[in-house]
From TrEMBL:
Sequence ranges assigned to domain K+ potassium transporter integral membrane in this UniProt record: 34-524
Keywords from the named record: Ion transport, Membrane, Potassium, Potassium transport, Transmembrane, Transmembrane helix, Transport
GO molecular function: potassium ion transmembrane transporter activity
Subcellular location: Cell membrane; Membrane
Topology of this chain in the membrane: Multi-pass membrane protein
Chain's role: Potassium transporter.
Listed name of the protein: Potassium transporter
A family per Pfam: K_trans
Residue ranges of domain K+ potassium transporter C-terminal in the record: 536-757
Biological source species: Cicer arietinum (Chickpea)
Family as reported in the entry's similarity comment: Belongs to the HAK/KUP transporter (TC 2.A.72.3) family.
GO CC annotations, alphabetized: plasma membrane
Amino acid sequence: MYLFSAMNPSEQFVEHGISQQNLKRTSCVNVLTLAYQSLGVVYGDLSTSPLYVYKTSFSGKLSLKEDDEEIFGVLSFIFWTFTIIALFKYVFIMMSADDNGEGGTFALYSLLCRHARLSILPNQQPTDENLSAYSTENSADTWQSSLLKLFFEKHPRFQKGLLIFVLLGTCMTIGDGVITPAISVFSAVSGVQVKINQLHDNYVVIVSCIILVGLFSIQHHGTHRVAFMFAPVVAAWLLCISGIGIYNIFRWNRQVYRALSPLYMLRLLKTTGIEGWLSLGGVVLSITGVETMYADMGHFSALSIKIAFTCLVYPCLILAYMGEAAFLSKHHYDIQRSFYKAIPEAVFWPVFIVATFAAVVGSQAVISATFSIISQCCALNCFPHVKIVHTSRKIYGQIYIPEINWILMCLCLAVTIGLRDTNMMGHAYGLAITTVMFVTTCLMTLVIIIVWKQGVIKALTCLLLFGSIELLYISASVCKVHEGGWIPILLSFFIMAIMYTWNYGEMKKHQFDVENKVSMNKMLALGPCLGMVRVPGIGLIFSNLVSGIPAIFGHFVTNLPAFHQVLVFVCAKSVQVPYVSENERLVVSRIGPKEYHMFRCIVRYGYKDMQQENYNFENKLVSAIILFIEIEESVREQTQELTIDDGNINVEDLDASQHTLMNRSCCEKKFLPFSCDGQNLHQESYKVESLQILKAKESGVTYIVGHSYAEAKKSSSILKKFGIDFVYAFLSKNCRDPDIMLEVAHTSLLEVGMVYHV
């Protein structure tokens, strides 16, 4: 089995975003440019929180009194929550826990899977650990990390439990993508009622819906273009609210800085009791967007995001919250319109326009994060395959998913029209984001022990510090379930049911393929012709197996009188890394004796790679097989120890063979044209078998794709029958088929169906 690249040298360097490059070579100008662009994609959600934080915090029975204890207490909670969670946890700590430059819940889970072997992906092989992106820490395991790994190995149920826990956070993030556009846009548009009191709420809802439709309609242009359009808006917005904050501090209450003392938090809880505790469900909205900031890290770089946050976003938002608190300390009865009431009369309409645009931008971060999460779920067999469009040729990872985009739009419109109240939207919002943050904290605790090899004390410190704060906010948000908090719960459990059902069905499908493999002895007994007429051409048989002969081929042998001269069993699989470089994507091996002309090609993808072979896959595959034949012959001559074991070629000196392969692949790529003109071929390189493969390619390439249909056994429970026979069957019928992903012409496609029972 050999790993190699069949690419031109210029094709080897596919840009995976600036986060994949060495920052030492990244100029200061590029970093600052990315920091500027990140404002429009990463920080839009976080920067629009002042529109509704104070309003939602005082939406219950909590009221303002003359001594300002309540407003100062809420401001103190906002400041310390923003500082501890947003600044310390996410910017200083979480940004260091990246998976080859990628962030988010799945990035943390991927790190744990590689270091503790928790992966649920089928077809994982030891050779996958040789991927450059698969790098693990070289330091030896500590007794704590060894004990934790052993615990997960002995208890597979906890591995599944960890997956469900990760899916919970993922589904809450997707639910966040539904609520954020609705609350941001509706909050901004409703500000016009400050100046036009007689304006009916129905008109606010209509305008909000029009803006939301426009927002989702421009998503196909891609993150790169959206970032350049939106970044000036967010920058102007942050400067506006910070300037207004400074104005309000000096005009209304210069003593507001005293609220930065944590003593005011204790006073708030002591004097107001349960009402002060419930108000925390609104306070937590001040850090909405920090999780999407972490999830969108792969679109830019950790350094650029840190610069933008510490130098602009953090100080501007703190000044905005302080200024609004200063205004409220003198205007207790304006709490439900405090943000717009605090704007000076002379600049109200310009700020209102900027606020509306900023609210639109604020939705972009979660929409981009939702696209990224769905893409990762598809790669990890946790979501049906959907159409994924890469919107940038320069920066890899910026994607657009049409189906998800329009579903999100419909759900956002439903929330906006159905609730018509920012307080109820805020309660739903708070529960979603706090749950995601707590999931991230728990995963980070495991990363500290298993990946970073740190002690339990440091991990527990992280868990207790951040987890206790997040649990406090979760407890306050749970009490608001009946006031809108049921929305993210309902959405999350619905999406999780889809994910779990799809994952279960795919696992059972793979199990069926493994248990029904065709015996190698049976294949060898048929002889080189496999009991059929071998006609010119290449047959690409797609299966889920990385070893053995799939059952679908036995179906062909039994029912078809003829088959192609060259057979290639292709397995496209995902590995637990974000990206697989082009020179490591293909793994080629031979099946059976040489005269059978049967090969296996494993195509490896990372969970953020585009699984669409629209870049001349046939030519690259043929080139890879020819290179394999040449290197196989070279190794045979050098070692004379080539053997056949279960159909795969093994070399005694594997390291030497791989070294020979990589060296030769670098110097022999020029011998990989796809013309069969003998004048362009070096006779000493292309031997008889290579010429046969090239001629077979000229005769045509046929794609053979198997369609497996699952049916629940008659003895299965009603729930299982419903999940398999209806839900999984519906998802399988409506997801994207492999032939569509590969862009195969119908004239070159052969489909065969099989039914299996689970």
